[in-house]
Write a structure and sequence with these properties.
The strands form five sheets. Strands 15-14-11-16-21-18-22-20-19 form a nine-stranded mixed β-sheet. A six-stranded antiparallel β-sheet has the order 1-2-3-10-5-8, with helices on one face. The protein has a four-stranded antiparallel β-sheet with strand order 4-9-6-7, with no helix packed on it. The N and C termini lie far apart (about 65 Å). The chain is of the alpha+beta class. It contains twelve helices and 23 strands. It folds into two domains: about 5-110, Jelly Rolls (Sandwich); about 115-365, Alpha-Beta Complex (Spore Coat Polysaccharide Biosynthesis Protein SpsA, Chain A), CATH 3.90.550.10. Strand 6 and strand 7 form a beta hairpin. It is globular and about 90 Å long. It has helices at about 5-10, 145-155, 170-175, 180-190, 195-205, 220-225, 225-230, 250-260, 320-325, 340-345, 365-380, 385-395, and strands at about 15, 20-25, 30-40, 45-50, 55-60, 60-65, 70-75, 80, 85-90, 100-105, 115-120, 140, 145, 160-165, 205-210, 235-240, 240-245, 260-270, 280-285, 290-300, 310-315, 350-355, 360-365. The model has no long low-confidence stretch (mean pLDDT about 90). The protein binds uridine 5'-triphosphate.
Length: about 400
């Protein structure tokens, strides 16, 4: 790589200027080069980040660079690597303008921890009449409501800042994750301490906030409600009615860290069923089960479907997606579709990666998946023998 201060100054974009310094950025494929001209006697505002290391090339002048607790002398020709998790600052101790170039990976929201959003505002028509007065996200799967599995999946991946998108008739979700003083008092008095502990644990699970989608205009519209919460950073989306086993989002975070791109979980479905899903077109293979995506299409007919790989309810997305969602374009079924916005993201040259998830996915909005998930989890529980005996009694197992 050629580090050329003149070129940076000429072609770069002036991104910051105050009485202390001027900063010019040039974006390259995966990198940003940032030329800083630091005036005599001044210091840069120290900053701290977690996600990637930076390299500082000192071009001219004389000063100091503070890396964590250590202070180093810096002059033209010196190179410093700033490791992840390091607070750093540059101080100009000379009489001339001190110039240095910082090289860092282009990564949206550097230094911020991923947040998760859980859309849970849909009508759940496929599960009527149960969902008339009860959110489908609160349906019990073995011994917990669906959405608790989803919250636990995010927590298990280290994501504890969660926004749940709710709507009318979904209050039970908020109540479920809230403290319940009367019930707690009752359980305490009755000496039912194991239940008390369980109940308290739920309300202490995570830092959950809620926002209402006033009208169920589609998944894309639900995600759009999270724009302010997310800000300028990648974020995770976990559908509130989908359970994955083992947890899918943890693997996806690894893929995201590696490729610094949006990631979408995919699974094979029978070709004749593609019209129920968003379907992906694969580009080049990046590694085991990981591909670049060249297109995604919402609910195509089997003839027009580019593959039989369906989007499965787990995403890590660039915040650029909000620009497309905000256009409010209606897609399949007259709804604002998340898949359509992802398609535009790809068409605009953003890297979107597909991760073929090898585990089990249960879409609880679908009755059959709900039954299957309950059977699977009960067979993994202390009731296994009882259930097997029961199935034999009914003549369904040997
Ligand atoms: P679904 O595709 O299952 O839609 O949504 P739905 O409307 O809930 O269900 P059916 O098709 O009528 O049976 C996937 C996820 O997106 C949320 C749902 O709550 C579910 O968790 N969603 C969907 C919203 O939050 N808002 C919407 O407008 C649509």
């Amino acid at each position: 790589m050629r580090l050329n201060a003149e070129e940076l100054e000429k072609r770069g974009k002036l991104v910051k200027k105050d009485e202390r310094y001027e900063v010019y950025d040039i974006e390259m494929e995966d990198l940003v080069l940032s030329l800083t001209k630091l005036f005599p006697g001044k210091a840069t505002s120290g900053h701290y980040h977690e996600d990637s290391e930076e390299v500082y090339y000192f071009l001219s002048g004389r000063g100091k660079i503070k890396l964590g607790e250590e202070v180093h002398e810096a002059q033209a020709g010196d190179i410093f690597t700033v490791p992840k998790d390091t607070f750093h600052q540059v101080i100009n101790t000379g009489d001339d303008v001190l110039k240095f170039i910082a090289v860092f990976e282009k990564y949206e929201g550097r230094g911020t921890k991923l947040k998760a959003i859980i859309p849970a505002a849909g009508h759940g028509t496929r599960f009527l009449p149960i969902t008339k007065a009860q959110p489908k996200e609160m349906l019990p799967v073995f011994d917990k409501p669906v959405i608790q599995y989803v919250v636990e999946e995010a927590l298990d991946a280290g994501i504890d800042n969660i926004l749940i998108i709710t709507g009318r008739g979904k209050r039970a979700i908020e109540d479920h994750f809230d403290r319940s003083p009367e019930l707690e008092q009752f359980l305490e008095k009755a000496g039912k301490l194991e239940y008390l502990e369980e109940i308290r644990k739920i309300s202490e699970l995570a830092n959950i906030t809620y926002i209402r989608q006033k009208e169920a205009l589609g998944l894309g519209h639900a995600v759009l409600q999270a724009r302010e919460f997310v800000g300028n950073a990648y974020f995770a989306v976990l559908l509130g009615d989908v359970i994955t086993k083992p947890a899918c989002i943890r693997d996806m975070l690894e893929v995201h860290k590696r490729y610094r791109a949006s990631v979408i979980a995919l699974q094979e479905v029978p070709k004749q069923e593609v019209s129920k899903y968003g379907v992906a077109e694969l580009g080049k293979s990046l590694g085991e089960g990981v591909y670049e995506l060249t297109d995604v299409i919402e609910k195509p007919s089997p003839e027009e479907a580019p593959s039989n790989l369906a989007i499965t309810g787990r995403y890590i997305l660039s915040s650029k997606i909000f620009t497309y969602l905000a256009q409010g374009e209606r897609g399949y079924g007259g709804e604002i579709q998340l898949t359509d916005a992802i398609r535009k993201l790809i068409q605009d040259g953003e890297r979107v990666v597909g991760y073929i998830y090898p585990g089990k996915v249960f879409d609880i909005g679908n009755k059959l998946d709900w039954i299957k998930s309950t059977i699977m989890l009960s067979l993994e529980s202390e009731f296994r023998e009882e259930i097997e005996r029961f199935l034999r009694e009914l003549g369904y197992a040997h």
